[in-house]
Amino acid sequence: MEFVIGALSAIGAGVFTNPLEVVKTRFQLQGELRKRGNYSVHYRNFIHAGYVIAKVDGITALQKGLVPALCHQWAEDRNLHLKENGEISLAKSMAIGGVMGAIGSFTGSPLYLVKTRLQAQSDNRIAVGHQHHVAGLRHALITAYHQEGIRGLWRGVGGSIPRMVVGSSSQLGTFFICREFLEKNEHFRIERGLLNTFLASMMGGVVVAITMGPLDVISTRLYNQGVDCHGKGLLYSSYMDCVKKMWYTEGFQGFYKGIIPCYMRIGPHTVLCMVFWDQLKQLQSKFMPR
Question: Does the keyword Transmembrane helix apply (predicted)?
Answer without folding.
Answer: yes
